[in-house]
Amino acid sequence: MIDLSTYKNFYFLGIGGIGMSALARYFNAKKFQVSGYDKTPTELTNLLEKEGIEIHFEDSVSNIPQAFLNKEETLIIYTPAVPKDSEELNHFLDNGYIVKKRAEILAALTQGKTTIAVAGTHGKTSTAAIISHILHTAKTPFFSFLGGIASNFNTNFIAPEDGKADLIVVEADEFDRSFLQLNPDVAIITAVEADHLDIYGTFDELQKAYSDFGAKTKANGKLIIEEKAHISSSKKMLSYRYGTSAGLDISATNIRVENGMYIFDADLNGEKLPSLAMAVPGMHNIENALAAMAATREFVNSTDSFYEALKTFKGVKRRFEVIYKSDNKVFIDDYAHHPTEIKVTVETVKNLYPNKKVLGIFQPHLFSRTKDFAGEFAQSLNLLDEILILPIYPAREKPMIGVTSRLILDDIKNPNKRIVDKEELIQYLINNDADVLLTIGAGDIDKLITPIKQIFINKAAATLKN
Question: Are strands 222-226 and 238-243 parallel, antiparallel or unpaired?
Answer without folding.
Answer: parallel
